[in-house]
Each structure stands twice: as structure tokens, then as C-alpha cells.
Amino acid sequence: xxxxxxxxxxxxxEDALSLKLGDMITLDGQIVVTAGLPTHHRILETIxxxxxxxxxxxxxxxxxxxxxxxxxxxxxxILYMNPTTSTRFSxxxxxxxxxxxxxxxxxxxxxxxxxxxxxxxxxxxxxxxLGGGAPLISQAVGRVVTVGWGDLISHYRLVTLEVSALGPxxxxxxxxxxxxxxTLAQTAGTRRAGILEQLAKARKAAADTGT
Length: 211
Description:
Elements: E1 5-8, H1 13-18, E2 24-34, H2 37-48, E3 61-72, E4 75-83, H3 93-100, E5 104-107, H4 113-122, E6 125-128, H5 134-140, E7 141-148, E8 158-173, H6 180-210
């Protein structure tokens, strides 16, 4: 199996378009993270009010990552990080994706069709994090660059991090709007229909034998 290909952030438009469904990659550079629904609502408020959030999100890598952190004399210290479910944010993400022209979005569980369409429009991708991969994610964090909205609990804050070899990450929605989640759902639906048909035949055969 080939090693994940390394990319430097911010991801270029050309690099984003070159990524295919199922590609595995690692990232180096700065990412913006939060695990909070209230944070997403605040981001929308800043967009609609014509203000900027406390992190540079333009053409950025914006990931749904939560952290276990603590305040120290030297500042905000992240002890470990873990992906959170992106689908919780699907109703909000299309506006955020389009406004900031996000080049990368990521988390676990995927995003819906409307988000995939928004990513297609701006040439962005959705990257799926390894579930339970907290040690790998945590060891990739080099330093905390900025911490925004400090009134929120730690994993809801809008945090910019410097990362090195973050991954492996799987391209689950590409810059053309293709989605592994849609493909899997279609495949499961097709198989389900076949399984139900076989079960119906088996029941009928059993009933006929019984009579």
C-alpha cells in the first residue's frame, strides 16, 4: 500500500482538484479547528455582520476537531485532539464554505449533498479523519497559533494550529462534488433491495413447504 502523499497548507486550487476519492494524504501547515455548534453559529453571525472571525479562514483548512486542553502560564495547551461528527454542522456549512471559499473541510461522518455542492463550487475537498485516531492527530500538533472566543469551553473555541504530517486523511468528497458517502449509500441501498428480495423468496419457500 502506497504511503499517504504529503501536502502543504494552504492547499492550492490545483492540488485540491488533483485529489481523487479515496486518496490518502497528510498535511503540513496551519489549520483552524473547533468542535462547537455554537462556534459555527458565531461564524455565521460574523459573516452576516460583515466582520471577520478571530482566525483567518479564507481558503483555509477548517476541521471539526475537539480537544482536551488546559490553560497554563505559557498559554493554551492541547493535551489531545479527536475528530467530531461533521454531519451535525451540515445545515450551516454551505454558507461558511462559500463565504470563505474553504479549500479543505474535515472531520468524521461526512457532510450532506448541499455541502458537497458548495465544495464543488469553490474547489474544496472534505477529508475524513480516522475514527479513534486521537494519538495520531495529537502528535501532529506542533503549536497553538491563535485561540479565539475564549469565553467558550475549550473544545468550542476557534483555534488555529500548526501541524506536521497530520493524517492519514482520506478524500471523502472531492473538488468535483463526488462523495464516498453517496456512493456507499447507493451501494447499500442496492444490496438492501437484493437482500430483502432473497428473504421474501425464502419466506415464501418456507411457507410453501409448510403447507
